[in-house]
Amino acid sequence: MQIGSGFDLHRIRPTRRGFLLAAGVKIPAPYRVLAHSDGDFIFHAVSDALASSLGTNDIGHFFPPGKPETKAMNSAVILKHYLRALIGQGAQILSVSVVVAAQKPKLAAHCPRIRSALSEALAIPLHRVGLTMKTFEAVKPLASNCVACWATCLVEEGRPRMRRRQK
Ligand code: MG
Question: How far apart are the first and last CA of the chain?
Answer without folding.
Answer: 35
